[in-house]
Amino acid sequence: MRPVPPIRVRVLTAVPTRADGQYVLYWMTATRRLERNYALDHAAHLAETLQKPLLIFEAVSAEYRWACDRHHQAIIDGMLEHERALASKAVCYFPYVEPKPGAGSGLLSALATAACAVITDDSPVFGTPRLLEAAARLEGVRVEAVDSCGLLPLRATERVFSAAYHFRRFLHKELPAHLGDMPAADSLSGLRIPRLDALPDSVTTRWDPTRETDLDSKTLVGTLPIDHSVGVTEWKGGATAGRAQMLDFVDDRLPRYVDDRNHPDLDAPSGLSTWLHYGHISAHEIFSAVTQAEGWTPLRLSEKADGRRKGWWGMSEPAEAFLDQLITWRELGYGYCTNAPDYARYETLPAWARGTLEDHVSDPRDHSYSLEQFTNAETHDELWNAAQRQLVQDGRIHNYLRMLWGKKILEWTEHPREALDVMVELNNRYATDGRDPNSYSGIFWTMGRFDRGWPERPIFGKVRSMTSKSTRRKVSVDAYLERWKA
Hints:
With 486 residues, the protein is an alpha/beta fold. It has 20 helices and 6 strands. Helix 1 links the parallel strand 2 (23-28) and strand 3. Helix 8 (239-253) packs parallel to helix 11 and helix 16 runs antiparallel to helix 17.
């Protein structure tokens, strides 16, 4: 197995690797998959080099913000898949679903005490930075965080880009150098390492791995001290379901992506954002599936790094439009959150957007709603209400309507700060792809981030506005409204 590109590895504790440790510990936190995972590649390579066992530790806390049945079950679906896949491998897997707040305190430290080194996932948003801070406090053991977030390494630039166009120009120059580096399709295939006979007594006397029968039980989440009002959806987590969705999209819906993706009545979007969010599928794997379907090679790349949306890849128009979402917009968000740790603060809006919104705070609102009214879809607008019902019941909103959803919240609240709070709360509580760099990109885009000034209007100022009336003229929503009516 080839070493992981150094640009993707960040040392959190500069302690020498302990050759006398019992195992290499991979703490799986954000990249929750066994394929196309640079962190797992790195841990497996180190274990093979040292000829030590590999221990994969994957946990879910009972006390993260917005902890609920919906988010928990998505993670547990993946854990069950890992438990079954690793049963026949020369790898030890330790799944841990925390039964009550604080029950898992000290577990990572206990596992790290016997480790040669600790490898974990690097990611810029939600709980991962806090977990990385905890890992960096481990004493006497080397800790490294590995970036598997996207095709462009997070540390390829320290620049904060203000618009997709500027980021796209940078991508055109920088990305080709990284396209030859792909995480392994199967990090554990052919891995020759000893098997771990037993976990340290300091671990087993206090913590038990969550059993496969419990992971497989749909009643497990109901026993946990989390929010049960946000129930599970029909969506299923794990790499197998994500891969099936990917192949269905590439084979069936990608050819009509340009023409149909904005129409809620037509099932054209990829639907992959949730699996990407939980780390169950890799952007590298999706990219590979698209390029294979296109019969593409890097020789078809344009030599002009001019930031254009069409023509640079040398692929079909639908494929290029989709890759602009998967790579340009997705990785624009990851880069922003990496290089601007205060990404979720209102003050990070562009000065022009913040200024124009506040100039119009005193503009009269025809409608104003509370968080409770928004939550319950109790507005005067049937299209907005349908989108909110889809979010609460299905865990997602159609991509085009998600923009309208945010714009209307901005219009129907007394201050843009309040609008931001409402959008973050609703999205992160209910959306299966919430709490993600893409979530914050979308929310802040409705308020001017990554956008430009438009003709001035009441309430919005120079921030782009949207109306339900114009949306209904542009896209087909009749079947959507029928499905998500009260």
